Amino acid sequence: EVEFESKPDDFVIQVGGLQILGSERHESRRIDRQLRGRSGRQGDPGSSQFFISVEDDLMRLFVGDRLANAMDKLGASEGEVITHPMVTRAIETAQKRVESNNFESRKRLLDYDDVMNQQREVIYDRRLFALEGGEDLKGEMWEMIEHNVQSTVDEYLESEHEEEWDLSGLKRRITLDYFTALKGLPDEADEAD
User: Fold this and answer.
1) 175: helix, coil or strand?
2) How confident is the model at residue 193 (pLDDT cuts 50, 70, 90)?
3) Which of 154, 145, 150, 149 is nearest to 174 (CA)?
4) Domain ranges of the chain
5) 159, exposed or middle or buried, with CB in 10 Å at 0-12, 13-18, 19+?
6) DSSP of 24-40, one letter per residue?
7) What is the pTM (predicted TM-score) of this model?
8) Residue 46 pairs with which residues in a beta bridge?
9) How far apart are CA 129 and CA 122, in angstroms?
């Protein structure tokens, strides 16, 4: 038994320093290292120990049943402490997989962000053009409408054979996009005849 003297820091050092107990391993090795680093600050004594289960999310999702099967073959009983290098490697492999997946997700997110920024710049340029009373605002507007209508027509009438054209789909789309009805195109009821 250690007797408490004057400073709490002295007491902590006398009993072995800060003890970090982890109830599972984090997906990120960096977080695990940060937790370990808390235990021995500035040369003070300390230790860290992690307790994991093959049923933890990290182990279950990224290591699967292989480790549990290997433990069964080794004759490990439930609740037994296992400090085998195979377990350490399995944990590190699982953490590397998670970190790699997370990195790819962040990378994809940045790619999407770049596309969004490009689109935002185009919209801001168009808006500024309109606000400043651009030279031929009406002409540009009609040019954009013509381009969009042509793309829509190409989409619904892409076949060379007239009988394969989706005229009712084109009519619905133009009506929805431009709030106007097209005259001369058959209705769905007419097509059924």
Assistant:
1) helix
2) very low
3) 149
4) 8-104, 136-193
5) exposed
6) S--S-HHHHHHHHHHTT
7) 0.50
8) 18
9) 11
How many whole angstroms separate alpha carbon 54 and alpha carbon 108? 31
Q: Establish how many alpha carbons lie within 13 A of residue 87's alpha carbon, considering only the half-sphere containing its beta carbon.
A: 15
The first and second tokens of residue 56, run together, are 């933890």
Tokens of 151: 């793309």
Return the DSSP state at 5: -
- Where b means 16+ CB within 10 Å and e means fewer, 62-79 reads bbeeebbebbeeeebeee
The owner of tokens 């490697």 is 89
Q: What whole-number distance in Å separates Cα of residue 171 and Cα of residue 186?
A: 8
CATH number given to 8-104: 3.40.50.300
Q: What is the pLDDT averaged over residues 97-105?
A: 91
Q: What is the pLDDT of residue 189?
A: 46
Query: What number of helices (H) and strands (E) belong to the chain?
Result: 8, 2
Task: Please determine, for residue 192, whether its predicted confidence score (pLDDT) is greater than 50.
Answer: no
